[in-house]
């Protein structure tokens, strides 16, 4: 087997392991908080999240780096090719959720909560639900 192919396979295996670990962390975090991951509810929020991402990416007041990350996220979500295919139950959408959380945290840090609230197209409860997975947790005292 050519050495470039062996290297490529090792890189793909490493990326797969990292992605699986991220999925496990998402699951563990939800269980630790006593939440169950209801994928149907998450899918109902998907159109609002996509509109939010598009609106933030189009807003010139949002820093350029955050806008590029948001456009990259839109491309990842809209393309049919994923790291974990969507037809795999639960895991197929978990990788999309992880990507949304990571990029949303980046956008929140650089654009601010005011921009997210300004561009959110859904209900207040929907925004609270989305932000509960995006906002960093503060330790309980």
**What number of structural domains do the residues give?**
2
Q: H/E element string? A: HHHHHH
Structural class: mainly alpha
Radius of gyration: 17 Å
Outline, from the CA principal axes?
Answer: globular
What's the end-to-end separation, in Å?
A: 56 Å
Mean pLDDT figure: 77
Query: Which stretches of 5+ consecutive residues score pLDDT under 50?
Result: none
The overall strand count is 0
User: What's the helix count?
Assistant: 6
Percent strand: under 5%
If you had to describe this structure to a student in words, what would you say it looks like?
This protein has 141 residues and is mostly helical. It has two domains: 1-34; 36-134, no CATH class. It has six helices and no strands. It is globular and about 55 Å long. It starts with a helix and ends in a 7-residue tail after the last helix. The model has no long low-confidence stretch (mean pLDDT 77). InterPro entries: DUF1232 (IPR010652). The chain crosses the membrane at residues 6-28. Keywords: Membrane, Transmembrane, Transmembrane helix. It is a multi-pass membrane protein. Its main location: membrane.
What are the salient characteristics of this protein?
74% helix, membrane, globular, mainly alpha, transmembrane helix, 0% strand, 141 residues, transmembrane, 6 helices
Provide a quick synopsis of the model.
It is built from 6 helices and no strands.
């Amino acid at each position: 087997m050519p050495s470039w192919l062996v290297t490529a396979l090792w890189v793909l295996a490493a990326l797969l392991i990292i992605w699986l670990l991220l999925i496990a962390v998402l699951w563990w975090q939800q269980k630790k908080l006593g939440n169950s991951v209801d994928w149907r509810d998450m899918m109902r929020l998907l159109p609002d999240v996509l509109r939010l991402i598009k609106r933030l990416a189009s807003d010139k007041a949002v820093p350029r780096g955050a806008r590029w990350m948001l456009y990259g996220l839109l491309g990842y979500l809209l393309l049919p090719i994923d790291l974990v295919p969507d037809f795999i139950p639960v895991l197929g959408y978990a990788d999309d959720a992880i990507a949304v959380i990571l990029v949303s945290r980046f956008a929140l840090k650089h654009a601010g909560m005011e921009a997210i609230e300004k561009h959110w197209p859904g209900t207040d409860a929907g925004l609270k639900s989305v932000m509960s997975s995006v906002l960093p947790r503060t330790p309980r005292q």
